[in-house]
Design a protein that fits this description.
By secondary structure, this protein is mostly helical. The chain is built from 17 helices and no strands. Helix 2 packs antiparallel against helix 11 and helix 7 runs parallel beside helix 12. It is globular, with a radius of gyration of 32 Å.
């Protein structure tokens, strides 16, 4: 069931992200749609967390905490929850899952019924579908701008995966604020939601590369500040969470907007669109970073000496988690800055690609001299054919009793003229 759910989520992500390319041929419209898509993704995450937390809290009336007992804390052992309380908590989780699944179904129905797909773009994207899958993927993955973009996605998504996963454990075991984990994550996500639209305006004004570099540079001190936060101090944690949300929100839409430019560049070079393949490869890299982030978190816990089921963890667990959520994201963000700077599709190159695609779609405007030459040649050919007909007709009219080589077709054609 888990594997089937994962496949469904991946299929939904690929189709919803690739649909942006089919909404409009204008790159600015696609960038705007990508911004709003990232905004609603973050809103969906915040809404899902809020709904899940409220429903589970309604059914978790006992508020059971196995580490409340001082004897258990001293002995590093856990008490057990009675079967009635466990059944109520289980019912809360099931109801929460059902509500979120129903909301997902409503959103999918709204997408299917309320979105119009441009068939002219879709047909060009689906051409050459009989090409072998391996050669198609190889052509996409070896396309030079896409190589840089995949490395950028890896360098940007890995710190985000580490922050969203290991920071929860760091707040609990490193900062000793287990009751503020949900509040800290809520502050981070809300700040990301608020900063999406202003960030989209900045990208529309100054392009993608320079703002993306600035946001990644701003993420470096914000992540390093996590390592120096005082223990059991709530206000500094919230301040750093706001900075992390504002600077990390760029990873939710700028790489996907850059992918639209890569697809256009490949379409101009190869003469066909591969939108779905490009988005599938990018999502595969994102899934790889998520898995790698979870693996790094597990390794950090093992290095720190994490004890499964223990109420009290050693201080080394908090130290290892602090290094993981601060040094690793800062290092990969610095690598992402260099890759973004070396990214070959600049704003000038983007304009050239746009003009090339427009000229290819409108050949009459692309080469007026060639079009005029072809028109004149066609007129000359038409005049020469009319001269032949006139000559034959004249020879026939000179001797009306005999056709002299003029068949009935020539005479009929002359009468029609």
């Amino acid at each position: 069931c888990v594997f089937f759910l994962y496949i469904c989520i991946q299929a939904l992500s690929i189709s919803s992200r690739a649909l942006v390319a089919f909404l409009s041929p204008d790159s600015q419209d696609r960038d705007s749609a990508t911004v709003y898509r990232g905004l609603f993704v973050l809103l969906g995450i915040v809404t899902g967390l809020a709904i899940h937390g409220q429903i589970v809290a309604l059914y978790d009336k006992v508020g059971f905490d196995p580490c409340d007992n001082s004897t258990n804390s001293i002995n590093n052992t856990n008490s057990t929850m009675d079967s009635t309380s466990l059944a109520e908590v289980k019912a809360g989780y099931l109801i929460s899952a059902g509500v979120l699944a129903g909301m997902t179904l409503l959103c999918i129905l709204g997408l299917v019924t309320g979105t119009t797909e441009r068939r002219d773009i879709s047909k060009t994207s689906q051409q050459d579908h009989d090409q072998p899958l391996v050669s198609t993927i190889w052509a996409v993955m070896t396309f030079r701008p896409n190589v840089f973009l995949l490395l950028i996605c890896f360098s940007v998504a890995l710190p985000l995966s580490i922050l969203l996963g290991a920071s929860v454990l760091y707040v609990q075991y490193g900062l000793h604020l287990p009751d503020q984990v949900q509040n800290a994550m809520l502050v981070l996500m809300v700040s990301a939601v608020v900063s999406i639209l202003p960030m989209g305006k900045v990208v529309a004004r100054f392009g993608k590369r320079i703002p993306f570099i600035c946001y990644q540079l701003a993420l470096i001190p914000a992540t390093l500040a996590l390592l120096f936060l005082p223990v059991r101090s709530l206000a500094p944690l919230f301040v750093v969470s706001v900075f992390l949300g504002c600077s990390g929100a760029a990873a939710f839409f700028i790489p996907w907007a850059m992918l639209n430019d890569v697809v256009d560049a490949y379409s101009l070079q190869a003469g066909r669109r591969m939108d779905t393949v490009f988005f599938s490869v990018a999502l595969s890299v994102q899934s790889l970073t998520t898995t790698l982030g979870l693996g790094l978190t597990t390794i950090a816990l093992e290095i720190g000496g994490y004890q499964t089921g223990a109420c009290v963890q050693p201080d080394s667990v908090g130290t290892s988690l602090g290094i993981l959520v601060s040094v690793f994201p800062a290092a990969f963000s610095l690598l992402a800055v260099w890759l973004i700077w070396m990214y070959p599709i600049t704003e000038d190159r983007k304009k050239e690609i746009k003009e090339g695609l427009e000229n290819r779609n409108t050949p009459d405007k692309a080469d007026p001299i060639r079009t005029m030459s072809e028109t004149l040649a066609a007129k000359d050919q038409q005049m020469s054919s009319l001269s032949d007909v006139t000559y034959k007709t004249t020879s026939c009219y000179e001797k009306p009793c005999v056709f002299h080589g003029c068949d009935k077709t020539d005479i009929i054609f002359t009468l029609q003229l």
